[in-house]
Amino acid sequence: MQACLQNPADEIYFDAQTTLRRADGVRMAIEAGKHIYCEKPTGVNLEEALSLALLAKEKGVKNGVVQDKLFLPGLLKMQRLVDTGFFGRILSVRGEFGYWVFEGEHQEVQRPSWNYRKEDGGGIIVDMLCHWRYVLSNIFGDVKAVSCYGATHIPKRWDESQAPYDVTTDDSGYTTFQLANGIVTQINSSWCVRVDRDELFQLQVDGTEGSAVAGLRNWKAQHRANMPKAVWNPDVPDSNQYREQWMVVPTLSEPDNAFKVQWEMFLKQVVLNTWFKFDLLEGAKGVQLAELGLQSWEEWRWKDIPTLSVH
């Protein structure tokens, strides 16, 4: 790494290491004058993440953080609906993310074991609240407050070498967000849930004029003019086929890989010497939300989200 940092031909440092190693690598690269592109979380806590954003600003290097979910086909379509006013006044956003990660005793695990050890930077709340921060802020509105409950549903797992270990962090997070514009959002994130939805991530948005459901790729909508009449009467069978009453919206053109799209955006900003929207400060906002989510769980209360800046 030192050889690369000393090579003037290597202008950009891309850090995709595990969370505990990220800040040291990014800090070294900033000090070496390299432009920075890195995965999230950008630090193990808010203080560390903000310090990187401040250092990058002081050194004048371009910097960006992966926020790939914004460039997935389903969420690109959702953004289009918001921009065109399809929903009217948005009332609520509710999401489900996750799947069953095998414990490793009988079936091979499909996530690395460090994800389940707090001492190694693991935990689904730290992982996913960084994502939900930029998804909500960019598509729906700034996050004003958070209430989070975490759980360790599976206390024992087996690692890549089939050795048993104790899980020391959360494997599920149940989170409610209040947005500054009044939208209420609730997202469940879990590695202990069996999937009964079309995709591993699903987001439903309800507004006064219409609703939509987006997955990672697919998207369906229902306008108020086409909405069926639902009547609560548990004593008789319901004649509505609710899932069939949504309009599936086709993909007009196949979008490129989400990671590639954002990476190319960053390269363009470096070449043109312009500001990149998804910078280390935005990455710090994700760390902030995850940190406050954990505090909310520990303290059993809502936590307000202070405004962040670097000076």
Keywords:
311 residues, alpha+beta, Rossmann fold, Dihydrodipicolinate Reductase, domain 2, 2 domains, 9-stranded mixed β-sheet, 3-stranded parallel β-sheet, 7 helices, globular
Structural summary, described in words:
There is one protein chain. With 311 residues, this protein is an alpha+beta fold. The chain folds into 2 domains: 2-68 and 258-276, Rossmann fold; 70-248, 2-Layer Sandwich (Dihydrodipicolinate Reductase, domain 2). It contains 7 helices and 14 strands. The protein has helices at residues 2-6, 19-31, 46-59, 73-84, 124-139, 258-272, 280-299, and strands spanning 12-15, 35-38, 63-65, 90-98, 143-151, 156-158, 164-166, 172-179, 184-190, 201-207, 210-214, 219-223, 247-248, 303-304. Strands 13-12-11-10-4-9-8-5-14 form a 9-stranded mixed beta sheet. Strands 1-2-3 form a 3-stranded parallel beta sheet, with helices on both faces. β2, α3 (46-59) and β3 form a beta-alpha-beta unit. α2 (19-31) runs parallel beside α3 and α3 (46-59) runs antiparallel to α7 (280-299). The protein is globular. The two termini are 30 Å apart. The model has no long low-confidence stretch (mean pLDDT 96).
